[in-house]
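Technical annex B. To support the medicinal chemistry partners, we prepared a structural model of the target in complex with zinc ion, based solely on the information shown next.
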Amino acid sequence: MTSRSDGHDTQGDARALFYRRYRYQSVSRSLREQRRRDALVPAELAAQSSQDYCEQLASHLRELLSSEELRLVGDFFVGLTDEPRFSASIEPVGRSHLILVHRRLFNALQFVSDVITHPRLTATEQAHHLARYLSALVLAASRGERLSPHLPRSPDLESVEHSIASSVVNGSLFRFVVSHELGHVVATRQLACGFTDTDAHAELLADAFAFILPLRETRLDSVSSALYFSTSLLAPFLFLYLLSAFEQLLAVVASSQPATSHPPSVARTGALLLHIQRDLPQHIASQAEQLSMLWEQFFRQIVCMTNG
Ligand SMILES: [Zn+2]
């Protein structure tokens, strides 16, 4: 066991934390280059690292943060781990932060994106695909399986257009997840309220921050802009209802839920909508409400199919 160092993370604490908690499948190239000298990344794991996707996302989000927010979070890096968890996390590493998206969540976001953008599947067929996937995911999670060999494969990509649509949706989901983790540091430190990681309010602040951050983008042409903003509005609700369906199904099969720092996702969606209605322009609020209703119905259907 290690003792807390009164909120002061020394380089040694960070290194110990890093080794203890994570086995890396990959981390961003930035992390590899910048940290190799400090031996923060085990050499054999750094050698496997190739995560342009994570790196591109991190650099995009860096550009959207204000200088004050950048000062609060320091530099940050995004990586994937092989942890079979349906979650993401943020940890201090020295003066930087490391955002980790765990493999099971990362794969699920890809699956969902491929299915809901599929040009030939009806909404009901899409729901069936997701119901099968979620059942297998919940079964693996409830048994504590490290691998998920029985997870269905996503339907084949149909065309270049399908591939583009899927990657745009997937990008917006991934952006929401990573922005939420950034929100844990930025939003809570900005308010300086002394929230802890287990405070439900901190989760809601992180969601609100993650909703707003991508909308700050101003450099897109009109075509990419329409696509970017519509998927940025959609992603938080798609993600939270997906998570909510997972939680509901897991509660049915698992006698005891794993400890989580997050309030139920349905509560998060409601709180996010309230925040949007209060603080954002009416046209954004009404789109958000419609998207929320749409995904709520879709995932309710999926939970019924899976339980039935
Ligand atoms: Zn969180």
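Notes passed to the chemistry partners:
Strands lie at 24-26, 76-81, 88-93, 96-102.
Residues 11-101 form one domain.
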